[in-house]
Amino acid sequence: MSFPDWYLKEKKKARHRLKNAKPAKYGIDIALEDYQRQGRRPKKIESLKKLGKYTQERLESVGERADEQFRCATHLQQDNITTYLNTIKGFLPEGVVVMDTDRAIKKFNWFKNYYFKIMPKNLNKYTVFVNAYSQGGIFIWIKEGIHVKFPLQACFYLQSSNYVQIPHSFIIAEPHSKIHLISGCVTDKDCKNSAHIAVTEVFVKEGAEVTWTMIHNWGKHFHVRPNVGIKVEKRATLISNYLLTSEVKSIQSYPTAILAEGARAVFNTMLFCRGRSQIDSGSAIYFNGKDSKGEIKSRALILDNSRVALRGHLSGNKKCLGHLECKGLILSKEAVGRAYPNLSACEDAELTHEAAMGKVRNEEMDYLMTRGFSKDEATSLIARGFISLDIPGLPATVNNYVKEVIEATGKKSI
Amino acid sequence: MLKIEDLHVEVKEKKILRGINLHIKRGERHVLMGVNASGKTTLAQVLLGFPQYKITRGEINFAGKPLNNLSIDERARLGLALAFQAPPKVDINFEQFITEIETKFGGKVNFPNFGQEIEHFRHRNLNDGLSGGEKKRSELIQILAMRPKLIILDEIDSGVDIDSLKLIGEILNERDESMLIITHYRHILDYLKVDKIHLLGFGKILVSGTSQKILDGIEHYGYKGYLNKLGICKECPLKECIVVE
Prior knowledge:
The complex is a heterodimer of chains A (414) and B (245). Chain A has helices at residues 5-18, 53-60, 101-107, 125-133, 362-369, 375-387, 396-413, and strands spanning 73-78, 81-87, 96-100, 138-142, 152-158, 164-165, 168-173, 178-187, 195-204, 209-217, 223-232, 237-244, 250-253, 256-259, 264-273, 278-287, 292-302, 307-316, 320-330, 336-345, 349-358. Chain A is of the alpha/beta class and 414 residues long. Chain A has two domains: 5-367, no CATH class; 368-414, no CATH class. In chain B, the strands form three sheets. A seven-stranded mixed sheet of chain B has the order 6-9-10-3-11-12-13, with helices on both faces. A four-stranded antiparallel sheet of chain B has the order 2-1-4-5, with helices on one face. A two-stranded antiparallel sheet of chain B has the order 7-8. In chain B, a hairpin with a 2-residue loop joins strand 1 and strand 2 (14-24).
């Protein structure tokens, strides 16, 4: 089956536009021409258990279960090829479609109605790049009223050096459906100097609920640009949890949600900023429907020589309730953290924010030391507690896993 | 257990304590009373080694060891435990923190019954949105998890209702650790038996004794009036502590 004409024309036009495409508003600029888009083609696999022990461990470091227990489906993309797609009988209800995005574009003639319908194609050179050259990505379509009990896991594994992974993913939750996606992004130890440039568009239709937990474990040679656009329709809910555990060369991320009447969006971001990472992380919520609600909570542990900007934007265009929190705990003299909270509100909007950047307060340190903990132990306890956001609504297995990852990463890095 | 001799303390070159002498034996419970800003909390924090205080003269010995050059955590590990008057909020899960303390101090502790109230904060972060009574319970659980030798209670009775005060008194009465109880008011003493009462003022312990007379004197005349009655004022503090038996 070949790609439809509309799609091929889209790609062709985007390739023309790419020459003049502008850099992103935030984050350091990446020379996309330095990366290969074609590389070796990883072979399809029959089971995650067929992967080597090391690869399985890498997958598990970002919340993917190699045994696939407590999961309803698994999607694995290695470089730009989907090498494994498995739906688990009895756990994935009928009415949920999971496939590679390229296949979905070929299969569904209505796909054009969703393609770059939230994310502006020309937002920056990365969105134009994905428009021009995307390969793969995950497509998830949950039909009306279907509730999926167990999370679906998707992993983007980058293993070729000097290479760029370019997935364009879609989540379409039809009215009153419910799903939880755990997506993990991870690199192979032999992979050097590569990039992950992605677009994800999430459609949460009336009364639907999408929870999306992302765990990223990159390497110090990687640039990451995950561009995310989310449309949350009437009385629908979107919960996004993002955890970065590793050093990375740079990340620029600014997922944006547009809310209709009575809709709700929550962004929880937890960042371990290590080594020489340059991180520009933000979220934005546009309250376009009355009685919409939203919350952005970002916490960064800023270590070593890292440079971190935490951004948040709430735009209250109707009667709404929103809260924004950008907090960084700086644990190194060489590290730098910046916070950019931004609120814009109409008369009926009720928006608040908290921003804080700085080291551990002496008062907290002394308090913990009176309980017998040394300065280093107290710092570690405070840091791990600081980054552990309480995430309501997360399934217990995922919640415990996120906490375990935070504990382990915290103990290792502080 | 605790021996303080001629302790002088400054903060930013301001003299706060001007020659404190105090001796608490194993298992004894002492009460330290005084007006606001008389140096009660300073003394508690100096005992724990808070770095903002400078000891200019005198010595503190605890369990046979000099404390002056030990850090806060070293003192805590020797067996000194402080229940804070106003503990700060810290982003650490309470229950997880208790486990960390227990692990550090040798394992699981059998806690007395602190009542249903602990269910309200068991899963919360330390001191996050807690009522007065909940804060005091949280402090007591933390310090009991340390298996301390000497417990310092800094205004354990402030901001708590009568029921909580009674419970705290009952729990402490069952303990055999040495205690230094810092307070403004005598109410906690309705529920807690003590061995000695000290009255702090002008940076010194001015009055000490075992007698109910001290409490009655403060109740009747107020701190200032009671001191005046004993012939003590800012301009004429006594060199020696008055002992009331």
